[in-house]
């Protein structure tokens, strides 16, 4: 019988929503529930939060000062030690999980399924390759643990209503001293909704033209309660910080509504939004490739369209 | 040639270069769905690896490092990408020839052998290969080697046996400091790779390119992950065009937004 361990992601005392999405994935592998491990310096709050997720059987809380920052080199040996009793170890396909899980896999002598997008069987999964231009089905043999990162946009978050026990765990692992956390610098998000969980996303590309012009998008986003994203070109040009990048090498998101302003629709960008409910594109070039995938397209200048939208929605 | 390597922080940097379908190519599945079409398709150095090499070259040019070694695993054709790496300015190359698929764990085991043999102070890889999109090899190498990893680097500073690396993470930027030797994987904003000049292509032909084999290095291909099927992604249908903002708003309201 499969037994699944999920590595929780958390910060600032809150569980990241990616963990609840991993739980949904785990339930498709083993319907009776999964264990969640929370590692931190003081992680009682996120551990308690994980215990309320429906589908969580048990929460393991590993509290020690070395776990204050999520350093892969420090966390991986602890997770590898805990993995002994499990057939599957899952983490989210966020930068946290992408950094950490391959290190866990290698310590276990196993490969990894990256960006797991669907469960076809306990050891059979689908995942995207070539920037989402092809989908492969992969199989992991019985002789090895399944280590995977879960493509969070592919799974709905598990709901609340669970009441799992939280247990302290002390995995016996030697922790390296060769890696030190220095600092974290937040992006420009401020109080705006989180890009990865927002229901509505407004996104800008090179067509927005400048950092100052992005104010127009922020204002419109605030008006409709949307998060703000961007293309790589907008990030590279310095209009917005890197954490706003959507796409193959940025964030993969699945909002109900995605509104793209001045974005041409390069394949690497579209990879990040293919699970969006409704894609709306505003571009002044009628030939822009984004119109090939948009559910609703409007040829026009974003500098006149956005103010008009605000007026129409007022 | 006299080398003043005493003051240098890193004697050698090893850079991993993967040969992949060029990122501008439109990917097509083979008619029998056994993989993607690569015959007659433009192949290039994985874009992230080009950035890794550029960073290594800059470190050597600043006197931080003495030698830049480029390595790759794959069929004999990978020599082309390693030669391009030499033309960009790498000092020498190693190709570990292997005709079958190379899983990240296998690649990491090969790179571990090469690291043990070459003793680099720094190994630079791309954060992900744009064909398998795995984003695993650097982290796996660091685990097997028992050394630090700094993934998704957008800034790299080296001083007195330590690398201070700014990493692109979901929440913004994170700075960590790691002891050398270390494994660093590159993000797109670390630098902009230089162009190769024609005379450098000529010069690169004379630079050493050694060929090894998996078996020769004592590495067996990793078991495990098996790809059993390929398929095209579900395509999104082209939707409707609207002619003005009022029509756009009406459509959005009709779909249940902004009511
Ligand atoms: C390995 C790799 C990974 C990548 N990863 C990503 C990724 O994760 N995310 C990503 O986004 N990109 C990524 N890219 C880059 C991608 O290929 C494109 O270069 C990028 O997405 C283009 O951004 P853009 O659409 O904003 O800019 P452009 O392609 O320059 O398009 C700008 C658009 O704005 C329109 N426009 C201009 N002015 C106006 C106006 N006033 N009103 C309305 N429209 C206007 C133009 O018609 C044009 O269509 C990656 C590339 C590589 C090689
Ligand atoms: N066969 C290979 N040859 C050279 N480098 C490789 C190979 N496989 C992986 N790499 C390196 O590992 C990085 C990450 O690859 P991946 O884990 O497959 O996404 C790449 O950007 C390369 O730097």
Looking at the structure, the CATH topology of the largest domain in chain A is Rossmann fold
Overall number of domains of chain B: 1
Ions, cofactors and other ligands present here are: flavin-adenine dinucleotide, adenosine monophosphate
CATH class term of chain B: Alpha Beta
Number of strands of chain A: 18
- Written as H for each helix and E for each strand, in order along the chain, the element string of chain B is EEEHEHEHEHEEEEHEEEH
Q: Provide the residue-averaged pLDDT of chain A.
A: 95
Q: Beta fraction of the residues of chain B?
A: 25-35%
Biggest sheet of chain A, in brief? 7 strands, parallel
Tally of structural domains of chain A = 2
The CATH topology of chain B turns out to be Rossmann fold
User: Can you tell me the overall shape of chain B?
Assistant: globular
Task: Provide the gyration radius of chain A in Å.
Answer: 21 Å
- Structure class of chain B: alpha/beta
Query: What does the average pLDDT of chain B come to?
Result: 94
Question: Helical segment tally of chain A?
Answer: 8
CATH superfamily of chain B: HUPs
Poorly predicted sequence stretches spanning 5 or more consecutive residues of chain B: 1-6
């Amino acid at each position: 019988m499969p037994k699944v361990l999920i590595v929780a992601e958390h910060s600032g005392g809150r569980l990241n929503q990616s963990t609840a999405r991993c739980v949904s994935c785990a339930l498709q592998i083993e319907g009776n529930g999964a264990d969640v491990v929370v590692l931190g310096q003081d992680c009682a709050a996120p551990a308690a939060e994980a215990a309320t997720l429906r589908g969580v059987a048990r929460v393991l809380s590993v509290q020690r000062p070395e776990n204050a920052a999520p350093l892969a080199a420090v966390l991986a040996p602890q997770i590898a030690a805990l993995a002994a009793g499990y057939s599957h170890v899952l983490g989210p396909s966020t930068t946290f999980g992408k950094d950490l899980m391959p290190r866990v896999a290698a310590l276990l002598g196993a490969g990894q399924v990256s960006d797991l997008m669907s469960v076809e069987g306990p050891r059979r999964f689908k995942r995207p390759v070539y920037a989402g231009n092809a989908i492969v089905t992969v199989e992991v043999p019985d002789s090895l643990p399944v280590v995977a990162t879960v493509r969070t946009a592919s799974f709905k978050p598990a709901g609340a209503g669970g009441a799992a026990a939280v247990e302290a765990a002390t995995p016996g692992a030697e922790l390296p001293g060769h890696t030190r956390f220095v600092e974290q610098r937040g992006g420009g998000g401020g109080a705006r909704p989180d890009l990865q969980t927002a229901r509505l996303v407004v996104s800008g590309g090179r067509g927005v033209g400048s950092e100052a012009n992005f104010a127009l998008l922020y204002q419109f986003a605030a008006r409709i309660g949307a998060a703000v994203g961007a293309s790589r070109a907008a990030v590279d040009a310095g209009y917005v910080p890197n954490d706003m990048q959507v796409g193959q090498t940025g964030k993969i998101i699945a909002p109900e509504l995605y509104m793209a302003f001045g974005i041409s629709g390069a394949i690497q960008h579209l990879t990040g939004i293919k699970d969006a409910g409704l894609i709306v594109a505003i571009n002044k070039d009628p030939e822009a490739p984004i119109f090939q995938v948009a559910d609703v397209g409007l040829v026009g200048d974003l500098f006149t369209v956005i103010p008009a939208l605000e007026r129409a929605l007022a | 040639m006299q080398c003043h390597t005493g003051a240098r922080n890193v004697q050698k940097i090893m850079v991993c270069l993967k040969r992949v379908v060029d990122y501008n190519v439109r990917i097509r599945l083979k008619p029998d769905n056994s993989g993607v079409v690569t015959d007659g398709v433009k192949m290039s150095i994985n874009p992230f690896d080009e950035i890794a090499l550029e960073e290594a070259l800059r470190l050597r040019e600043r006197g931080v490092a003495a030698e830049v070694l480029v390595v790759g695993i794959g069929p004999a054709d990978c020599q082309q990408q390693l030669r391009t790496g030499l033309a960009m300015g790498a000092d020498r190359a190693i190709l570990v020839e292997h005709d079958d698929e190379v899983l990240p764990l296998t690649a990491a085991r090969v790179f571990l052998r090469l690291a043990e043999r070459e003793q680099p102070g720094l190994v630079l890889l791309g954060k992900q290969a744009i064909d398998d999109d795995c984003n695993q090899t650097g982290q796996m190498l660091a685990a097997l080697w028992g050394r630090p990893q700094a993934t998704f680097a957008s800034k790299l500073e080296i001083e007195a046996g330590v690398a201070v690396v700014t990493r692109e993470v979901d929440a913004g930027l994170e700075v960590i400091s790691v002891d050398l030797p270390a494994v660093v994987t590159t993000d797109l904003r670390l630098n902009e790779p230089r162009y190769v000049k024609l005379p450098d292509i000529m010069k690169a032909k004379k630079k050493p390119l050694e060929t090894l084999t998996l078996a020769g290095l004592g590495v067996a291909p990793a078991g495990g992950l098996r790809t059993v099927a390929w398929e095209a992604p579900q395509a999104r249908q082209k939707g409707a065009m609207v002619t003005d903002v009022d029509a756009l708003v009406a459509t959005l309201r009709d779909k249940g937004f902004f009511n």
